[in-house]
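Hi team,

Filling in the usual template for the complex we talked about on Friday. All components are listed, including any nucleic acid strands or ligand strings, so the model treats them as one assembly.

SUBMITTER: L.P.
PURPOSE: interface mapping
COMPONENTS: two
RESIDUES: 687
SEQUENCES:
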Amino acid sequence: MAPSAGLARRAFAAEAKIGALVIGLVAVSMLLQLRIDQERGARVLPMFVHHNPGGAEAELIKHQNFSLYLPKAQALRYASLGHRNIVADMVWLKAAHYASKQFAGGGRLDWLSKMYNVTVDLDPNWENAYWMGAMILASVARKPKDAELLLVKGMSRIPHSYKLPYEAGVTLLFQRGKEKDAAKYFRRAALHPECPRIVLDIIPRLLSEGGSLEAAIMAAESRLNSMPRNSVQYKATARDLMEFRSRLLVKRWQEIVEAFRRQVGRSPAALAEVRSPLPRKDSYGRDLLYDPASAKVDSEGLRLVRLNEQIAVMNAALGDVKHRLGRKPNGPREFLDEIRKIYKPRAHTDERGNEQLERVMGRWPFRFPAHPFGDHGERFRYSREKAEFLLRPDRRLGALYPEELR
Amino acid sequence: MTNAWIIARNTFREAVRDRVLYAILVFAVVAIGGSKAIGWVMVGEDIKVMTDIGFASVAFFSVLIAIFVGTGLVHREIDKKTLYTVLARPVHRWEFLVGKYAGLMLTVLVNMAIMSVLFLVYLRIMGLVTVAGTDNVAPPVLTYMNLQALVLTAAELAVVTAIAVFFSSASTPILSAILTTIAYAAGHTSDWIMIMVEMLRPAPGAELTFWQWLGQWILTAVYYLVPNLEIYNIRNLAVHSELVSVQPLAFWHFTDTCATAICWVLVAMLLSVLVFGRREL
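RESULT (copied from the run log):
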């Protein structure tokens, strides 16, 4: 054999050994990687599940829900080499994917709060990330406390935003039932010079719902001053203002009755028995009502407002019933039977023993009136021809307001 | 300086003919144009995402040009032996380096300008498309803060290019590219050094030990010896320039930042001249 052939064979053998070694090492590292992935798959990256959808990892993730590894914002900030907004966008996108996937599968949304916090820590001036993040946390993930914390973080970083305090107010009012704190945020939003008109218009109503009637009155008065007198908004706000004033008057009278009872040891027999400089007519010019048995103060005008709200809900529900039946209901009995199929009964009845009904639309309850066919001695008339519940003409809202507000 | 200018012009011409440059430019244009695709997924945030990607693309691809073209700048001349013909003429080594740097900066700035114009025009068009049919007004794109962000990005590029030229004058292209990338990364993470200094602060009531003091001293020195590239990065803020709380940099803050860039460029170039002057060719 020629020496060159021997050399070539030896060289080939050496190369083959190196090649085998490389292949062996790659195989070992693949095996190691597989083992590492099995461990990571359950708690770190769910993407490994795709390789084995029916496997143990997939089952584990199904129960543990979509879990993932998300570094701290500070680490991501340095790793992004100055492009932290891009990383924030990616985390935001991941959060949207996570939320939709978990929500569709009925899974928990434990990571969502952290994802939104990482997003806003990477891009602290991204106002919509706080706003939309908080909305999703409060309404989809049912984590209003986390939503509030996210918004508080946002308010400290973007002090000139009206959106964030407004959203904080809505979250606190509707999700956490903290009326006073909500009112504080609504006031803060209303003070913002760029707060849009529609938000300003709604703030007095939200403040009143939150129990801050004085603040609601102030907000409504200030809105009225900046509105043209014949506009629809002016009329709506002026009507709201009348309602807030009446509610405040009733509240004050209730406090006086309570004070009387504490002082005298019994409830007053009539409001006339109580000496007070407060007016004895509500802002609609109607009488105040007093029930000596329960010692509750009310107002004629507010009762009418409530009745009208109630009939509006009834007529809205009538639309649902017509849609379900494919025709107009024959009478109140049939209406109520159908309503019970559409609306889910709540677990409890109200203080008068009336069944509480609510319709679950998504996750938002739409409450059906406690007294379906009238209240306080009023009865709604059902007109089969018009397919509408009707109030007596003198009980309609039109009769309550002065000419210029109708 | 005439010699330096001639070298700069030739460097620019040479870079323009380089196909790598066009490839990077095409990538940048695709990234800016493709940002709309991500914007579609981010409901209601498309303009924000497009601005983020646009600014990032302008900065990132310009840095790529600075690193990949800049690190091979001197070595290529040595490799092709063209450096000897240049230095055989009455041209100083420092003139050669300054010319190379100026040529590369011109290339980077022209590319950056092309990308920026494309980005701003694209953003304007997309802004108009988004608000079409509504009462909303498209957000302005040529704001003072956006311009500041682009000028400071150019300042950052000037520093990175000078660092690339420095490493290029002292070592091989691959090593230069690695070292420049490390310097770029260090420049963007140097804030972290000051966090470490804070970590070395003694607990309340405890006394500062000698080692803590030494550690703090060394880390602080390192912090100031590494050019902090984050000071040129107001791109993340410029995206939100519509917010009242986000204000453009004050005039003196802006000029100070630009002056810092000039200082670092001079430092890097002087070191380059020093190293290149001693180099055996």
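MY TAKE: The CA atoms of residues 117 and 123 of chain B lie 10 Å apart. The two ends of chain B are 23 Å apart (CA to CA).

Thanks, L.
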